[in-house]
């Protein structure tokens, strides 16, 4: 079964679960377009998630999902809420969702873990995951080490469940490349930051649109928790302190509340501005519908052009 049929959506595209950004309203907007909107629960309490679930169900009748960040201390309670509100799809990140898979699957919920390696993808397939999101290091936020182009085809070859590509996708050409590599769909985040409906500070959107190809940096490589963010004072200081061997507590103090500073306050100097490497391609704010429909229109157009060029070759 194709991923679009499995998720009951028009476009085989999943909204990335971006903490403090992927709100109920934004998820509903994406779902109403025909893709899969996702509520990010990573920075939420159970009470906040319940409010978001109620709001999202009021704003859309289309399928939507919840991203369950497994580092969140309230995961047990959040799983209960997801089941209570009959959320159709759960994506997971920052850990192994194995302890929740049976409970979620018994409730009829589609479970799609984000995976950074072939081994983890295989483990999730054996555990009963319905599909996997294969995320390359080009992505913004928490990342692995392998690139999308290198990782996706290796996972496709290894597993039989659908593979969704993520990381470095902001154009129809990149979407087409992901499908050519064997993915059945894509997950996108950075390209939706410049959506008109995206609930981030205008400074954040301006930073994305002004970003160059080399304007991201990965913090946390030494500590084993790599995160791709915008190069600013905070991120440069973090990397410098990390190289000096500062403690985990000192580093956490530097980033405390950093994402909220960026998203809500528009602090581009000391905030944690999570963006992927494709930020350098994004130059204007557009309605989310135009962004998503444009990706697939460009992919179809590029496919036609590619077939013509291939005949010549």
Please characterize this protein's 3D structure.
This protein has helices at residues 3-7, 24-33, 46-59, 75-84, 98-106, 118-127, 148-158, 172-180, 202-210, 233-243, 248-255, 258-265, 288-312; strands spanning 13-15, 37-40, 64-69, 89-93, 110-115, 132-135, 141-142, 163-166, 185-188, 216-219, 227-230. By secondary structure, it is of the alpha/beta class. Helix 2 (24-33) packs parallel to helix 3 (46-59), helix 3 (46-59) packs parallel to helix 4 and helix 8 crosses helix 13 (288-312). The mean pLDDT is 92. It has 2 domains: 7-192, TIM Barrel (Alpha-Beta Barrel); 202-279, no CATH class. It contains 13 helices and 11 strands. The strands form 2 sheets. It has an 8-stranded parallel beta sheet. A 3-stranded antiparallel beta sheet has the order 7-11-10, with helices on one face.
* Assembly type: single chain
Shape: globular
State the share of residues found in helices, binned by percent.
40-55%
The fold-level CATH name of the largest domain is TIM Barrel
Query: How many alpha or pi helices?
Result: 13
Largest sheet: 8 strands, parallel
Please report which band the strand proportion falls in: under 5%, 5-15%, 15-25%, 25-35%, 35-45% or over 45%: 5-15%
In total, the number of domains comes to 2
CATH architecture of the largest domain: Alpha-Beta Barrel
Strand line-up in the sheet with most strands: 1-9-8-6-5-4-3-2
Radius of gyration: 19 Å
| Unreliable stretches | none
Secondary structure class reads alpha/beta
In CATH's first tier, which class of the largest domain applies? Alpha Beta
